[in-house]
Design a protein that fits this description.
This protein is mainly alpha-helical and 296 residues long. It has one domain. Helices cover 71% and strands 1% of the residues. Strands 1-2 form a two-stranded antiparallel ribbon. The longest helix is centred in the N-terminal third of the chain and has 28 residues. It is globular.
């Protein structure tokens, strides 16, 4: 009886799961071979920019409605947004939920709704990168920023003006510049965008595209009356190129996040303690301290 059962077709048939696993092995994505295409990557980037525009407006509208402002007078409205301390805080604080929503969307795309590992798909290894590398790069770029400031002159951009009118806004900037901006921006630019465009166009075009896009998006905040602060913009361009090349070299996103966090963290400390510093108010390096304050 036992022998007959063993000879039946049902007994001898291979397990369906084993057949599927043998004939169709599961291939996991890698940082340079992601499970999304260029259009999806561009859509995530566009959504991140949209959130940064949307949330400040959502936060501001109820408050503006109580101020009896003339909405037809654009100059009056802009001046109010730049000088009213509570309006400034609302604009800055709104960046945090925008970052959170962007990160949720990025997680959905990267993991295919929890099908793949978020960290493994983006690359979560050091691969030879060290913390001291971040410090050396920081000192080098900061020194270059001082030189560029001396060459192009000191330009007080619109973002610096906002922070001068609200100390509370300074603390909000220090928080998200250190804890949310490095993660969100690196996931979007050096993670999702670079990976998709590297696979489609190769390393050179992917590096150029991501580097320039990251810089161009930040130009408005480093401008005054539509005139760019050239020292800040060039410094940001070089920093963006450095971060992208680190992604190329290590084939992992984690080193980019670490370097971005070190940059923003040190600059956040400078931003917080700047009023308490004595004897350096007129030094060039103090004038350009805002260059890295808003690396989102």
């Amino acid at each position: 009886m036992q022998t007959e059962e063993k000879n039946t077709p049902e007994f001898n048939a291979p397990n369906k799961l084993e057949t599927i696993e043998t004939s169709q092995p599961l291939i996991y994505p890698t940082p340079d071979n992601p499970p999304w295409n260029g259009w999806t990557a561009f859509g995530v980037w566009a959504a991140s920019v949209f959130f940064i525009i949307l949330f400040p407006n959502l936060f501001l509208l109820p408050y503006i409605a109580t101020q009896n402002l003339n909405f037809s007078d654009q100059s009056q409205l802009l001046e109010f947004l730049k000088t009213d301390s509570f309006a400034i805080v609302l604009q800055i604080a709104a960046v945090i939920p925008a970052h959170i929503l962007t990160l949720v969307l990025a997680w959905y795309i990267v993991t295919k709704f929890n099908t793949y590992s978020f960290r493994e798909t983006l690359g979560w290894n050091w691969n030879g990168f060290k913390i001291w590398h971040s410090l050396v790069i920081f000192v080098s770029v900061y020194a270059l920023a001082i030189i560029l400031s001396l060459i192009f002159g000191d330009v007080e951009n619109d973002f610096e003006k906002l922070l001068k009118n609200s100390r509370t806004a300074v603390y909000f900037v220090a928080f998200f510049a250190t804890f949310t901006a490095p993660l969100v921006e690196e996931v979007v630019y050096r993670g999702i965008l670079y990976s998709a465009f590297y696979r489609k166009f190769g390393v050179i075009l992917a590096v150029l595209f991501v580097t320039l896009l990251f810089t161009v998006v930040h130009i408005p905040q480093y401008s005054s009356n539509s005139i760019p602060d050239y020292a800040s913009v060039i410094t940001l361009l070089l920093l963006s190129l450095t971060l992208t090349l680190i992604r190329v070299k290590t084939k992992n996103l984690l080193p980019c996040i670490i370097l971005h966090t070190v940059f923003n963290g040190i600059q956040s400390l400078i931003l917080i303690f700047e009023p308490f510093l004595t004897g350096v108010a007129n030094q060039p390096e103090n004038k350009i301290a805002a260059i890295f304050r808003f690396l989102m």
